[in-house]
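This section describes the prediction task in plain terms. A model, or a person checking by hand, is given the sequence of a single protein chain and must write out its three-dimensional structure as a string of tokens. No templates, partner chains or ligands are provided. The sample shown here is typical of the held-out split.
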Amino acid sequence: MDRTSAILACGVTIFLCGAIRNRTRLTLERAGITVIPWLTGTDRQVLEGFLCGGLAELAMPGVAV
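The expected answer:
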């Protein structure tokens, strides 16, 4: 099973990530998953940013979240 299939099989609804290929992003979005890419930080920082509405602070330089 490839990564994209594994993500879909897990019942993911929101996918927080750093870099992601356009093809993978489109596949996930077509499956109904919200993709929030181009984030930087530790897993804990990203999760806290998501839960507290602070993802903009974790966006990679030049990217708007």
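For orientation: Residues 38 and 62 are 10 Å apart (CA to CA).
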